[in-house]
Amino acid sequence: MKHSIIGSAIAAFSMLSPVQSLAHTGADSTSTSANHSRLSVGGYGEAVMTRNFYSDKPHRYSSPDLYRNESHGRFDLPHVVVFLGYDFGHGWSMSTEIEFEHGGTESAVEIENEEGGEYESEIERGGEVALEQFWIQKSFMPQLNLRAGMIVVPVGATNSHHLPTEFFGVYRPEGENTIMPCTWHEVGLSLWGRAGAWRYEAMLLPGLDSERFGSQGWIHDGSASPFEFKIANSYAGAARIDNYSVSGLRLSVSGYVGNSFRNTLYPTDGIKNRGVRGTVAIGSFDFCYDIRRLIVRGHFDYGHLSDSKHISDFNISMSKNSTSKRQKVASAALSTGIEAGYDLFSLSRQLSSGGKRLYLFGRYDYYDSMYKMERDMDEKWCARQRVAVGLNFYPIRDIVIKGEYAVGLLDKRYNNEPSLSLGIAYAGWFL
Q: Fewer CB near the terminus (10 Å): N or C of the chain?
């Protein structure tokens, strides 16, 4: 039986990565035509504007009284992604995903007239261009598939379901996006499959780099590498299990464990570092209940870092020229959130004609990147609640227009952080 990237083989599997999510989303309309082609082209993208009714000054937490009643605005392209897939036949397939974050990067060489006609290199736009996925896969059967390359790490709700049509807010859920890499992708090996109502994935990948941990983001930047390669002095494992036994309901558990302290080029030998491992362990539960007119999603993540005091002291003592944030890092972080939306157009057959939907939603998050510390640290601003309400309008299935009002609720010594955001996004197949 012929395997197709977005045909019967992958459409039969549950959503995990953007590739699988798009395959699932577009299965009804694209699987017939896709079976006639080995090439698949798709993508997703977001354009947003936000007015934040709080200060963006770097000292707004250390001196909150100085920054009351300030505001600032932003326009952004958080993610624009192009996906290319190809079916080689005989169970072999490949996938690539190229992501332009915040509009990508732009640079130019200019003549500076005010400086005697000197040629200078100018950075004209900040942003990132990243190869977020690249893997080659061998499918032996629906229950057994082997994948190698740059793969999304299947830990947490957002990493597994991060298309803009898979969450209600204008931006990705703030808690998971703060304490964990998002979208977390690594070069590694993945074994996965689906049997009945169960789906599993187990992944071998390089460990995180504790040199890049920090107060506000915990391990968020630990998966990045400033070098042309990813250091793998330590290895890690990740796993995920999804269950679809109840119609419209997905229940998922996932986890990660791996050492992080010696996964750097910076020397870590010496008696004072003996026995320090910096083991990162994360456990996560997430769910989605989707009966079209009502959608409820939620997650809970808890992470632990061993030797956090030693890592904090080690990073703070590093040179300013190092890639380290030179910040304290907590021994534990957590994130939890829930959102629910109801399709108001489902109350009227005329309004819902043509597949149009209008979800009224609410969302609550609590997260703390400095939840537990091996010593006293006054970082109370890292703990916050966030409450949001808004609308998601789908004029057609693959397009969504979003509006959201949110308030970040901080400890009483700090200023709360309200915001108003608007956005438009798409997710679908082009070919």
A: N
The CA–CA distances, whole Å, from 189 to 149, 152, 215, 238 equal 7, 11, 30, 10
Name the stretches of the chain with pLDDT < 50.
1-21, 23-35, 112-115
Contact at 8 Å (CB) between 200 and 241? yes
Contact indicator for 390, 422 with CB cutoff of 8 Å = no
Which tokens go with 122? 């100018």
What is the dihedral angle through the alpha carbons of 153, 158, 162, 164, rounded to the nearest 10 degrees?
-170
- Give the Cα separation of 163 and 79 in Å (integer): 9
Q: Where are the alpha helices (DSSP H) in 64-182?
A: 157-160, 174-179
Q: Is the pTM of this model over 0.85?
A: yes
SS3 at position 28: helix
Residues 6+ apart with CB under 8 A from 51: 71, 72, 73, 419, 420, 421
| Packed helices 27-34 and 18-25: angle between N→C axes, nearest 10 degrees | 100
What are the C-alpha distances in Å from 4 to residues 52, 113, 232, 237? 45, 57, 34, 29
